[in-house]
Each structure stands twice: as C-alpha cells, then as structure tokens.
Amino acid sequence: MDCLFCKLRDELAGKAVYEDALCFVLQDLHPQAPVHLLVIPRKHLVSPDDAGPEDELLLGHLMRVAAQLARDRGIAADGYRLVVNSNQHGGQTVFHLHVHLLGGRQMTWPPG
Asked: For the chain, which residues make up each domain, given as ranges?
C-alpha cells in the first residue's frame, strides 16, 4: 500500500500529538490556522465513501477526539472548525480519511 498516513502510522510510535487504539493525531505540515491538527484513523479508509455501517463508532470517535483536543488546546470556547475533504474536488490530497481540526483564529465562510 502506498498510503502516506499508513506509512506514518507504522513509523510514529509515540511521536504523535495523541494516539489510541483507533486513531492518531499529527500536526499539519502546512497549517492553515494557529491550531491545525489531523485526526487520522488507524484503519485505512480512502474517504467517507468507504465507510460502512461497521465504521460508525470509528467516525464518531474521530469527532470526539477532535473535540477533546480543541478543549485541551484552549480553542473550544471561542470555536473551531472540523473539516473532512473527500476526493479531488473536495480538496482531498492524501487519500486516507482524516479530520482537520482548525482553530485559534476567526474562520471565514464560505471556506473556499
């Protein structure tokens, strides 16, 4: 498999911002906000389109981890954005499902 996040998953061992049995979290290499973290499931799913009924708990877990990290980073009270890009027109560049946690500044709308 030629997936960047799958390779990183196996190489990080303790270097992630957060990790548990279902996911790991990295700082984005090209941050778009003062806080920009990637919440990445250990299970390889290309996009939300690949998720089945058996993945519902995993998807919810990713959201809960992102919310906890927002609280831990002190951005929850002012607000933050969670983004999942799906496929080329959705802006996805790494084809392994992941959730962007962005915060620490006012977000604009529409996002782009």
From this structure: 4-103
The encoded tokens of residue 53 equal 């009924």
Strand order in the sheet with 80-83: 18-19, 23-27, 35-41, 99-103, 80-83
- The CATH number given to 4-103 is 3.30.428.10
- Residues serving a catalytic function are 98
* pLDDT tens sequence across 72-87: 999 999 999 999 999 9
pLDDT surpasses 90 at 53: yes
User: What is the rounded distance in angstroms from the CA atom of residue 102 to the CA atom of residue 83?
Assistant: 8
Residue 61's nearest CA partner among 19, 10, 32, 96 is 19
- Does the model's pTM come out above 0.90? yes
